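Spermidine synthase
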Amino acid sequence: MAEVLETVLGHGGELVLRRDGAEFEVIENGMFLMDTRNGESERLLVTGAADRLASGARVVIGGLGVGFSLRAALDHSAVGSVVVVEREPAVIAWNRTGPLREVHGGALDDPRVTVVEADLLEWLRTTGEMFDALCLDIDNGPEWTVTEGNASLYSASGLERLSQLLRPGGVLAVWSAGAAPGFTARLRERFAEVDVAEIPVPRGEPDVVWFARG
């Protein structure tokens, strides 16, 4: 039986961190969000984008999660710096000094990392910076949003804003817990190059990661 380590009230409602054997799980309002059991697709979100970039790339990771994507970014030779945008203070704390720190070896301590505690959509609307890669993992998918307002991020207008924040040759990468044909179509309307990767998981339909640029 899973052991509850901490329960807090976050911006999206009740957040629960629990341990199940050697693994950790994060639950929001009773809905499973993430765990530490695999992480292959979360790593691919970043490595697949970085493989398409030159050395010294500036990367944004939207959603800290359990740190899989951040660790993968720091271990990739093309990545020069990383901005992590995470709205939940508890998730940041669990990764910085709490039990999740051991999952990624204290990646938040790396001097190449900047952590921004903010709602990703608001940050994307207001930032004046441009990046080589935007790697987004804040929902269970474009058609399965954790927060209702996040749906606008995956709309045509949302994709237009994301494209404005990419440097020439930059890559947009988006993670999902399942296929989203409508989102694929919108990406292909806006970007010249769109690749869709399916990553098998032990149970259920494959995870999906999109890579778009141009």
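thats it. The two ends are 48 Å apart (CA to CA). The mean pLDDT is 95. bye
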